């Protein structure tokens, strides 16, 4: 367990569409939640869903088996590794998270500011 189940930002029963709908309704930059990844892959157990600039970003959270740590997005050199999913959230409540729009090839950044609960 990555320490997510007791957290306000963890939407246990939420799929991608529900998460995106909830974030569009919140309509606040920096709104976020974490859901189980659609694929249920042990190497990518969760997805960080973030709202910024009228867009929703689904960022995979990877589990690195060799170290037992977590990282965001696709593997890249110099990436940050975290001991838990909660540590990722806490870190990005203080420091900006880079949001990459692969379709338009643009970069934005925001901090995780508003927890969105899925009803």
TrEMBL record:
Annotated keywords: SH2 domain
Source superkingdom: Eukaryota
UniProt-listed Pfam families: SH2
A GO CC term attached to the entry: cytoplasm
Domain SH2: 9-116
GO biological process: cell surface receptor protein tyrosine kinase signaling pathway; intracellular signal transduction
PROSITE patterns cross-referenced by the UniProt entry: SH2
CDD domains for this protein: SH2_BLNK_SLP-76
Entry keyword annotation includes Hydrolase: no
SUPFAM superfamilies documented for this protein: SH2 domain
Name of this protein: BLNK protein
Organism, as annotated: Upupa epops
Gene coding for it: Blnk
């Amino acid at each position: 367990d990555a320490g997510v189940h007791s957290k306000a930002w963890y939407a246990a029963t939420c799929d991608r569409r529900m998460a995106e709908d909830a974030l569009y309704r919140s309509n606040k930059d920096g709104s976020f939640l974490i859901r189980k990844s659609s694929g249920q892959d042990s190497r990518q157990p969760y997805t960080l869903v973030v709202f910024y600039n009228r867009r929703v970003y689904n960022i995979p959270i990877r589990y690195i088996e060799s170290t037992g740590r977590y990282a965001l997005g696709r593997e890249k050199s110099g990436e940050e590794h975290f001991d838990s999913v909660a540590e990722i959230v806490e870190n990005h409540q203080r420091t900006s998270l880079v949001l990459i729009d692969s379709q338009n090839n643009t970069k934005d950044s925001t901090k995780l500011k508003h927890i969105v609960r899925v009803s």
